[in-house]
Amino acid sequence: MERWLGKHAELLYAVMRIVVGLLFACHGAQKLFGALGARGPVSDPLLVTAGIIEFFGGGLIILGLWTGYAAFLASGLMAVAYFKGHASGGFWPIVNRGELAALYCFVFLYMASRGSGRLSIDALARKTRRA
After folding, report:
1. What is the spatial distance between Cα 20 and Cα 15, in angstroms, rounded to a whole number?
2. Greatest Cα pair distance in the chain
3. Residue 53: per-residue pLDDT
4. What is d(CA 8, CA 2) in angstroms, rounded to the nearest whole number?
5. CB 40 within 8 A of CB 64
6. What is the chain's pLDDT, residue by residue, as a tens digit (131 residues)?
7. Spatial contact of 57 and 32, defined as CB atoms under 8 Å apart
8. Nearest CA-CA partner of 86 in 101, 108, 67
9. Which residue among 7, 101, 108, 130 is least packed, with the fewest CB closer than 10 Å?
10. Full-model pTM
11. Which of 103, 64, 98 is nearest to 84 (CA)?
């Protein structure tokens, strides 16, 4: 499988970056705008801050603009969300319902190490500077 998919790794990373960024931005839209099935916008300042990071950070990740920085911030947010909101419910993420926060945390940490990649504004800017 690696021999076949390996040659598409850059494209698949770009697709993953876009999809994960979109899903993350949807969480922010719920908090900030009461969209996508939310009961309404949140008023707790901590949740508003989380919503801003989710919505705008997700947008930067989708676009591939400063992805490393946005993903690092998002990874930290998800670590805080896990320990503040879930860890008290037990050790295992599947038990304390924190598996999504843990998954986002490590996916964003990987993205922070990898950067924007292909199909990104950052890649387009690099190409334009070289030309």
Report:
1. 8
2. 54
3. 98
4. 10
5. no
6. 778 888 999 999 999 999 999 999 999 999 999 999 998 899 999 999 999 999 999 999 999 999 999 999 999 999 999 999 999 999 899 999 999 999 999 999 999 999 999 899 999 999 888 87
7. no
8. 101
9. 130
10. 0.92
11. 98
One-letter amino acid of 43: S
Which tokens go with 7?
Answer: 């040659």
**Closest by alpha carbon to 10, among 64, 75, 54?**
64
Alpha helices in 64-97, H assignment, sequence order? 67-85, 93-96
Give the three-class secondary structure for 118.
coil
What's the chain's Rg over C-alpha atoms?
16
* Residues 6+ positions from 6 with CB-CB distance below 8 Å: none
Query: Exposure of 118 by Cβ count < 10 A (0-12 exposed, 13-18 middle, 19+ buried)?
Result: middle
Q: At 86, list the tokens.
A: 């879930």
* DSSP character at residue 36: T
